[in-house]
Amino acid sequence: MRTIDYTPLYRTIVGFDRLANMIDSAAKQETGNGYPPYNIEQLSEHEYVIELAVAGFGDNDLDVQVQENVLTVSGKRESDDSEPRQFIHRGIAERSFERRFHLADHIQVRDARLENGLLVLRLEREIPEAKKPRQIAINGKSGAKLISGSKTKAA
C-alpha cells in the first residue's frame, strides 16, 4: 500500500491537518475485506444516501452510531443453533461486520431504515447560522479621515 505524504500541503493550508489524517485512516481501512458492499449516493447539494447490502440481518442485528464525525454501522447475527442447517451452497455470508464512514462537518444522519435487504441511511448537511456566509460592511469612504494631503481652509 502506498502512503501519501501531506507535508507539502501543510505549508500552504491552515486547519486541514484533521482532513489529511481522516484521509490517511480511511485509506488504511479500505484494505479490509469489503463486506458488506455499499453505495453512497448524492441526492442534492446537501443530501446523501448510504445503502449497505445486509441480507440476512434484521433490525435487532444491526447497530448504527455516530461519534465524533464517524458513522459506524455494525452487524452481528446471533446463530440459531436450534436446528442445524446443512448447506449445499452458502453465498449469503451473514457474518459479523463493522463499516465506518468519516463524515464531514455538519453532516447529520436523519433516517435509518431496513428495506429489502438494504440498510438505507439518509444524511443531510445542516450548516448552523453562525457558519453561513454573511456580508461584511466596509467602512471606507463615509467614515474615513484623510490623514495626509488634505487641504483645509483657515478661518
From TrEMBL:
Residues 29-141 form the SHSP domain. It comes from the Bacteria. The keyword Thylakoid does not apply. Coiled coil: none annotated. Keywords: Stress response. CDD domains: ACD_IbpA-B_like. It holds the Pfam family HSP20. InterPro entries: A-crystallin/Hsp20_dom, ACD_IbpA/B, HSP20-like_chaperone. Belongs to the small heat shock protein (HSP20) family. This is Hsp20 family protein. It comes from Glycocaulis abyssi. The lineage of its organism: Bacteria, Pseudomonadati, Pseudomonadota, Alphaproteobacteria, Maricaulales.
